[in-house]
Amino acid sequence: MKRGDEDRFRVRPGRPRPTDEGGSQRFTRQVVRAAQRSGAGSGRPLSRSSGRGAENGRGRVAARLRGSRLGPRSRRVIVKARLVVRAQAAPGSTAAHLRYIQRDSVTREGERGQAYSAGDDRADVHGFVDRTAADRHEFRFIVSPEDGIELDDLRGYTRELMGRMEADLGTRLDWVAVDHWDTENPHTHVVVRGVDQAGADLIIARDYISHGLRGAAAELATDWLGPQTERELAERLAREVDQERWTGLDWSLSASARDGRIELADLDARSGPPGGRGALVGRLQTLERLGLAERAGTGAWTLAADAEATLRAMGERGDIIRTMQRAFRGDVREHAIFDASRSPAPVTGRIAAKGLADEMHDRGYLVVDGMDGRAHYVALPDRADLADYPVGGIVELRSPSAEPRRADRAIAAQTGADNLYRTDRHLAAARQAARTGDDPEAFVAAHVRRLEALRRAGIVERLDDGVWRLPGDFLDRAAAHEASRATGAVVDLRSNLDVGKQTRAMGATWLDRELLSGTRPAAVGFGAEMAAALGERQAFLEEQGLATRRGQRMILARDLLATLRSREVAVAGGRLAAETGLEHRPVAEGERVSGIYRRSVMLTSGRFAMLDDGVGFSLMPWKPVIDQRLGQTMSAVSRGGSVSWEFGRQRGMGV
Predict the structure, then answer these.
(1) Which fold, 230-305?
(2) Rounded to whole angstroms, what are the CA distances from 101 to 15, 105, 126, 188?
């Protein structure tokens, strides 16, 4: 063998062949089964009063045994777990999560993810969701082997891991999984129903979730790939020395620290794998450079109290910057992370990319190419659906308002010196100020609903029907209430269409609103593209007789948005009339229409609701509040592009 050949030649163990459960694996299962027969680790229902069900649940014995074979050279696997309780989850949470994890571009080939189960490469996801409908809870796991890229058969690995989990818990599991290859570390999402094979609630011991399953996953990865070589260990440690994130070396340093102080002698004792001591010393020098550690004499350091939190934040920021760089494929942009707590000015731009910042909790993010020429990263609010934000669509990012609502100011204006608000007094004033088409009753009813919300918050007091007592600092307390409810950024979708598709669209587009406002975008990035699109839109409006050029100026039609909206609604109404056989009834400004909410229709001018009265139908501007009332009877009044909705057949029940 020539010199250096030993560096090129390397034995790589393949996937272990099935055996008759010999060795420690057989011993583990025998102990677990014996413990289960004796009653230990039974899956009795969780006691809500004591909260100890998860401590005495299934897998308690296996949690103590799993990982006992692991050593310094074993493969590492990260396992994240979440218990989802139905009563606390959003409606359709399971279906939404499965949509997320089966999204596009997650396979090796960049295609849509495919769910699989223990025996089916194409799992029946809809059937799985239906089976979970009556479950009390479910479990969600992310399994991420550190060397997952070398596990060619990640699906086979997951199936064998779930088989070990079934043996540890003493029951068959109903689960589906999706492999993701779209990151540096391939990983698998697993969703497990919260019932055992007998249909009873599946209660898993906390120790098994936090330690046992990770031990089983690490043992399996080591069985498949073999122990890490000295070279692999040295390379991993060398990578961690300079990383600006929380690493395995930091865990070791934290474990060695005594009251925040680390002695070199302790590092000698805990050197572990080859090169471990040198890597730990190098890591301390990196932390010293970052201001997170300082020397405390010869051979000693002290760690900053916030070292872990700071390193995790640095790692998160680094991940965000890399995500933004991938979204722009090398195009130079100034990067900005939208922080709602600092109340920056609103940002408007095009969605350049989107994804999940927290795959375990389905929390999404957007990368926005702003009109200001900068790239912006924004975390979406909780429970926001990524499907509602198409790539290429236009969004506005802003901080939540900490001001009193307009309704709060109107209520305060109608409150007398006795600090009492009376609906009859407000109704009389509304009738006196009403214009043709106004609905004073609906107007006052909307303010009553606001008062009910403030009453539940303990801000106002209802004395009698139509009579409310307000505190002297009502507006200040209403503003504080709004601020307390505000979490994260507000992300408003202004258009689901790319600006290129808006230039010749028949409808009230976002570009039209920007023309009317006289917006001047930046001359780089999306700003430059938007400026060109505005010019094309002006030419289209001129063709349609909705704009006139006078020298260098373009004069837009007075009712531009209403005209474009009515033209598009007429075309969409004709198409729906041919489809349904019902007559389309255009709606005049201020006219009240009633009917059953049949469906919503997305147009260039926005989303519209179809109200069917049995003979004909009308299209009215849609609001999120009606989306859960599909098939119900409601009424609506439209004014200036906005709409007031009323539910049921009685007045005063609207929004």
Answers:
(1) Arc Repressor Mutant, subunit A (1.10.10)
(2) 26, 10, 14, 9
